[in-house]
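Readers of this paper often ask what the protein records in our data store actually look like. Such a record has a labelled line for the sequence and another for the backbone structure tokens. The tokens are whole numbers drawn from a learned vocabulary of local backbone shapes. We quote a single record here, exactly as it is kept in our systems:
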Amino acid sequence: MPFPRPRWFGSAETSRGGRRRSARSQRRPRGEGVTLQEDPKAVRERRQQRTGIGIGAAFLFLIIGVVVFGYYQEFYRPPRIWAGSVNNVEFTMGDLVQRIRVLQGVNRYQGGQVNLSTVPFEYLQNLINAEMLRQQSRSLGIEVTDEDIERELRRQFVPIPDPGQETDPGQIEREFKANYGAFLTATGLSDGDFRVILEEQISERFLAFLLAQDIEDPQQQVEIQWIQLAQDSGIPPQEVIKRLENEDFTRVAQELNTPSQYARPDGVVGWVPRGAFPEIDDAIFGNEEEGIEPLAPGTFSGPIFGDEGIFLVKVITGSEERRLDDRMALKLTRELVKIWQREALVAGTGNGTVKMQFNSRLYEWVTDQVFITAPRIERPTPVPPLVPGLG
């Protein structure tokens, strides 16, 4: 006989339904159907923490980006920036800095200094000039051989024995290598770098020889004297002119003249042909097209501004046909080389085969890079001139 289920256990139906509801409630995600209240302060703190982490990460990435960009702008990009080109040969700012450092090394050995206020742009032009000449050498009939370079190298560094002194070829060779090695060490150049420089200089010398064939001799010349003031001398030219109203030209020249290879300390230059000093040509020879009369003997010009300074020119003797002396023949030749370079540059830029890029920002970067390695020496090391004649 079945016994009735005790009441306190509930009915069988109720027990099965309750168990199902209990199972469903256990599977129900927490919070479903029940809203739990979080502490607003804790929520705010978590949000602030996440915001702070995000801002910190962004700031860190910004700093890293600035550092990387600065490195790229200051160290990686500038040396690779295109500076100029001649046909398919390009030069970068790094090439320009390297060549100026070569010039620094040579000047350090010779006891000179590099003028960073003018050198960067001038040396970019020199690179362009050398490359234009290299590419036109064949058409000009110029060919520089290894023998030419070796001959010039020995001319500069082989010791010259005293008259009557016995020489040993082996000793001469050892001294040549020692002298040349000391030069390379002192300047920081490699043998290859220096031979490239010699090749460019010899090419320019050959060009000068070709151009000199067209110089007329004899030709009209004027005997002159000048007062040459440096651009940065701080001496107002008008004050010099006032002095000349009451003082002798020679006396003032002896006091104020800038040393020059073309003038004596008293300012006497001697006989000068047209074209040797283009900036003073109009004053001493006149210019019919511009209606300018030449200075009369015994009179002097107003201030004439040139690349080498400010000039006050006095004519001693008027124009006469005379033979050129070696000094003025060489000066005329140098001016002809400059004219050739200028005309080649104008022609190249006109047809698009020659290009240059230089601005104040790049100029500042080049100057800064060169200044880092600028020589700081107290006493020069004596050495024969690196480039005789046209150097």
